[in-house]
Amino acid sequence: MSEELPETPETAEEEPIKQRKNGLYPGVSDELAENMKSGWADTELRDLEPIPQAAETAARRAALSARFPGERLVIPAGNLKTRSNDTEYAFRASVEYAYLTGNQTEDGVLVLEPTADGHRATIYLLPRSDRENGEFWLDGQGELWVGRRHSLTEAAKLYGVPASDVRELAGTLREATGPVRVVRGHDAGIEAALTDKVTAERDEELRVFLSEARLVKDDFEIGELQKAVDSTVRGFEDVVKVLDKAEATSERYIEGTFFLRARVEGNDVGYGTIAAAGPHACTLHWVRNDGPVRSGDLLLLDAGVETHTYYTADVTRTLPVSGTYSDIQRKVYDAVYEAQEAGIAAVQPGAKYRDFHDAAQRVLTEKLVEWGLVEGPVERVLELGLQRRWTLHGTGHMLGLDVHDCAAARTETYVDGTLEPGMVLTVEPGLYFQADDLTVPEEYRGIGVRIEDDILVTADGNRNLSAGLPRRSDEVEAWMAGLRG
Questions:
Q1: Where would one find the signal peptide in this protein (predicted)?
Q2: How many C-beta atoms surround the C-beta of residue 264 within 10 A?
């Protein structure tokens, strides 16, 4: 990365261009400024087709319009966030904005203006960098520094929505009258422009609606989730092939191997990869990934590729580093597999959302009682939640644009709701015996097992989107042996 990134300039007619402290160039001569204005080819893209999900985003905006008639609705993408000094984190648009537009650029804002028969949508974006005032090469976010942006005309073609300059939006919103709602937490400048026009309660209703709208996926979304899962399957295969290199280094080799697949075939990983070997598998969100990988231990790999449209997989396998489970590892693994089988079988249209969790927890509790690790009867243990010392977490969650999708939905429509065709959720029971847990025999300590798959609710049952990865212990061993040659 060049270390000469300049600060945002003022126009030539205003204050002199501000140079960054310790920059090597003291300024820009009039001759250079004039030279940089001309001699550039026309790069306007005139043969653009709408993005693949344009029909779906239009339908989503229509549903939003119908829910809030007569109100101005403001949905920001968000802004760049500083990582350190003058470098930023990679930008990811808010899920609400991406869901309604398909656009992923920073500073974008979708506005639905009320009309007599619904709403008029406009997408507000940064236009192409200005070549007349030097912005394109002097601004830290100019196109010669960070890449070309779409023109507003191009954006309108791509997203099927009229596009305007976002730099004018805050002023327009300050003058706005009538009821307004905004999705909060993404763009402080837009929120400041609306500060006297919105209420927290009304804005939360908008956020909740957009979260609940994602509970049932459309065909485009299901296709993207399958793409994410298919890439994730290949990422797991990549890891198995290099376990010897991970043994020679650390868990980070596993993390890096999976990340390569995610970046080559998708946008990124959907969440921080959990590459937990040995007793680290008992830490639910172990993302430090700096520990040793040893033959004889288990590797709990919880990872998901995120597609270019932001849909993420979320899959976990617990693999024997040596390629073969020990007797005690197989005992624990097979118990978790049996619990997952019960959980997946409970994923049916019309079933309560909680049913798959209850089914899996019952199996795990039965095993814990059978092994003498907790005193029965099973009903007593479940009533008191005593099994949670070793099962710890819920058995799954909704999946989509967020790894924990639809999180703002009302409890009555999510956790206390009913499964419908088109919902996609994870089923991921686990057993975790901490290395310092003196309530269990020593042979269990340091063993953590989780098996997780992404399940689509269908009209007649369910479909395991991640069935491409084996789950049964003997099948896992055979799969690993085949990959390792």
A1: none
A2: 11
pLDDT tens-digit map of 186-231: 999 999 999 999 999 999 999 999 999 999 999 999 999 999 999 9
| Residue 218, CA atoms < 13 Å, CB-side half-sphere | 12
Q: Which two tokens stand for residue 438?
A: 């003196």
DSSP string for residues in 315-337: EEEEEETTSS--HHHHHHHHHHH
Q: State the CB neighbour count (10 A cutoff) for residue 386.
A: 18
Q: Give the number of other CB atoms < 10 A from CB of residue 204.
A: 14
At residue 437, the 3 state secondary structure works out as coil
Angle subtended at Cα 453 by Cα 262 and Cα 304, rounded to the nearest 5 degrees? 15
Please, what is the end-to-end C-alpha distance for the chain in angstroms? 40
State CA 95 to chain mean position distance: 9
Give the H/E segment covering residue 111. strand 109-115
Looking at the chain, the number of H-run helices and the number of E-run strands are 17, 17
pTM tops 0.90:
yes
Q: Give the containing element (helix H, strand E) for 301.
A: strand 298-303
